[in-house]
Design a protein that fits this description.
Elements (H helix, E strand, L loop, with lengths): L12 H4 L10 H34 L13 H16 L6 H19 L5 E3 L2 E3 L4
Helix pairs in contact: 2-3
């Protein structure tokens, strides 16, 4: 059994018939995305500021035995502090708000689908509403 592939590019029939779908965003989602972007930028700036402050602290206490910072591990301490500050400051960004809105959308869509007044009766057949 032999098969020949003539053309499988972007102009093939299967690709042209796929259609291009756009995801619709509500105005609330657009606003929340802008707020989250701004908050992530704030967290990054705060982490940078705190890391620079920590760098000056490490530089001043580089040979202090109570902090166990040596010239060999000073760069690692400063680098690790950036990620530590990032983890602590990420609590400023309410990611559970996104989860709550998505769960709310699912619950409301199921309630709309279960609504008896949203049934369509055609030819004696009841067609439920689809969200």
């Amino acid at each position: 059994m032999l098969g020949v592939v003539v053309y499988t590019g972007a102009d093939s029939k299967i690709i042209l018939n796929q259609g291009h779908y756009k995801y619709k965003y509500s105005s609330i989602e657009k606003t929340m995305n802008m707020i989250f972007g701004f908050q992530l930028l704030q967290v990054a700036v705060l982490c940078l500021i705190f890391t620079l402050c920590n760098r000056s602290f490490v530089k001043n206490n580089e040979n202090s035995p109570q902090y166990a910072i040596t010239p060999d591990n000073a760069a690692g301490v400063v680098g690790f502090s950036f990620f530590s500050f990032f983890l602590m400051l990420m609590r400023l960004v309410p990611l559970d708000l996104i989860i709550n809105t998505e769960v709310g959308k699912i619950v409301v869509s199921k309630m709309i689908e279960a609504d008896a007044e949203m049934l369509l009766v055609e030819d004696g057949e009841m067609i439920p509403c689809r969200v």
